[in-house]
Amino acid sequence: MIQVKYFGMIAEATSKEEEKIDVGEKPFSEILSEISSKYQLGDLSYQVAVNKKLVSDFSKLQLEEGDEVAFLPPFSGG
Amino acid sequence: MIQVKYFGMIAEATSKEEEKIDVGEKPFSEILSEISSKYQLGDLSYQVAVNKKLVSDFSKLQLEEGDEVAFLPPFSGG
Amino acid sequence: MKKIFLEGAIPSEFIADSIAKHQSKHSIGAHNIFLGQVRADEVDGKKVSAIEFTAYEEMALEKAHEIREAAFEKFDLTCLHIYHSLGNVAVGGVCIFVFVSAPRRKQVYEATEWLVNQVKTEVPIFGKEIFENEESQWKVNS
Amino acid sequence: MKKIFLEGAIPSEFIADSIAKHQSKHSIGAHNIFLGQVRADEVDGKKVSAIEFTAYEEMALEKAHEIREAAFEKFDLTCLHIYHSLGNVAVGGVCIFVFVSAPRRKQVYEATEWLVNQVKTEVPIFGKEIFENEESQWKVNS
Fold first, then answer.
1. Which ranges does the record mark as transmembrane (chains C, D) (predicted)?
2. What is the pLDDT along chain C (142 residues), one digit of tens a residue?
3. Do the beta carbons of residue D77 and residue D87 sit within 8 Å?
4. Residue B56 DSSP code
């Protein structure tokens, strides 16, 4: 199981702030596209962080039990 | 009569903050050198303001009754 | 990890306190402070009445920590503080407070500007502009 | 002519008050504040304990007025304030407070820096550093 967190306009689209997902052996990119289609995030702009670090190369990443994945729309603090 | 004001280290050298001086028809440059020699200001760095404006060209200036002349050492506010 | 979030607008007394606390540091000669204040912007005839801030708090604290370290590398500073609001900040309220102190003034302006820009672009904080008619839109940083 | 001088150190409450007063101006999005604080510099083994400020006050007010006008020409500002101490300011005390407000942040840092430099070079204020042993020397701006 991994922890998935949604923020800002992404949390509005998913109507939830977090959820646990069972990912088994699936590659990360597949998990991301499943979430994206489930909640129709296709038109939204976002970055993905794993364990609080932004990820740019999804292909190299294999999630582990307990990882925290966050969907982050453009930052707009200040 | 004109009003002469001294500030900062110039006021320390003159031991006074202001005085009235009778200048008659004397040119401005002559008044300045009289004051400078009287108080031995020769080694000190200063600018002169007439009626609150810094003066750069002394030759063109003729003082009038009631003018205010100020001896200003380098500014060091802030 | 230093705390950066405050609930609601940052009060002017909080800012005064931070200033007063630095008066015992006698190597400091210059402070520079940036405050971001919520503006009553108008969008299509609707007026902003507040911004609602949320954040990925744990990541934001880590990022703020990295930014602090980088700032101390980059500029000759004695200390620096970053604070940001969470939750609702009405127009006129201060939502970001960046405070830079150094022996001399030369670098404090640039350091403040750099820090504010880093917070805006690198820290996962999300602002939602609430209009007077209760509609809202997600804030976009320029 | 706006008043710029305060007797003694500028209290943090005074700064907080100035900030609070701007919270009703809803076109403002960014404030930048510069504070100069008296440093315990060491010169030939003697430590500065205070700076004693005097000024040619009438000329200083005229100059500050000119600087204000020039700043509003040069930068896109909503308001700006300049305050400077007269008399004795002990180490750790704030002796200059420059406060710039604008709709957006872009120019506030540069405007603050420019204003502080103008005050230091153009306004007839004279600082005398008082050492702990009661000797003194005239401050030189760098």
1. 82-100
2. 899 999 999 999 999 999 999 999 999 999 999 999 999 999 899 999 999 999 999 999 999 999 999 999 999 999 999 999 999 999 999 999 999 999 999 999 999 999 999 999 999 999 999 999 999 999 999 7
3. no
4. S
Q: Is C138–A5 a contact, with Cβ atoms under 8 angstroms apart? A: no
Angle separating helix axes D108-122 and C108-122, nearest 10 degrees: 170
Distance to chain A for C43, nearest Cα, Å: 17
Report if pTM > 0.90: yes
Contacts of A7 in chain C (CB under 8 A): 54-56, 124, 126
- Would you say the ipTM is above 0.85? yes
Contacts of D25 in chain C (CB under 8 A): 92
- The burial of A5, by beta-carbon neighbours within 10 Å (0-12 exposed, 13-18 middle, 19 or more buried), is given as buried
List C-alpha distances in Å: A51 to A60, A70, C8, C120, D32.
15, 8, 27, 21, 35
Whether D35 and C34 lie within 8 Å, measured CB to CB: no
* Partner-chain contact D116 B74, CB within 8 Å: no
Domains of chain A: 2-72 (3.10.20.30)
Sign of CA dihedral D11, D14, D15, D17: positive
Q: Which domains does chain D have, with CATH numbers?
A: 5-135 (3.90.1170.40)
Instruction: State which residue of chain A sits closest to C117, comparing Cα positions.
Output: A78
Of B49, B70, B76, the CB nearest to D140: B76
Q: Which amino acid is at D44?
A: D
**Residue of chain C whose Cα is closest to the Cα of A5:** C56
